[in-house]
User: Fold this.
Amino acid sequence: MALKEHYEGHRARLRERFLKGGGNALADYELLELILYAAHPRGDVKPLAKELLSTFKTFPQILSADTQDLLKVKGVGNAVVAALKAVQVSVERCLKAEILQRPVLKSWPQIVSYCEIAMRDLKYEQLRLLFLDRQNNLIADEIQQNGTVDQATIYTREIVKRPLELGASGLILVHNHPSGDPTPSNADIEATFRIREASERLGIKVFDHIIVGKGQCRSLRNERMI
Assistant:
């Protein structure tokens, strides 16, 4: 009974602090506790929150961690994974909603944040395509290809064909480096040139190629590589 009173009192106090002070009033492990309450309606979840932070180091890395890696942590089951992934998807949808409200080229920080959250902790390379209309509004966001641990084979013809099917006039390429280092390789640069050349023959502008690493992104256009 005393243990029950302790964790129930702790939960009530934590919720009250959050409602009064917002996220800034809580440490990362305490915010995690609030999320974990959905998966564990009873019991003390503070040890699990601290264990997750110890294992994955940061709050964002917990949310984007692979499901199988999460399940290796003692105390994590499907309910915990579902609670964490629900928060991750909510963040992605909020960022995407912001992107949809105005032209992509005027919301570049949100574009980069969205791509980083969605791709930075993947253990394999993924090629994502963002399709733009004539006003540079986002009309589609699609995963074109999932690759091996260190390579996504880029098929120029398939990439160029898709904007024509969607009626898009602009394209942004995004892919990740599972190593965490977003430095573009020679292959990345060469593939970008091939895609840009083929696309522009059809009136489709390739605005950029963003490479996502861990904690940082690189833009080939910003670095004048395209």
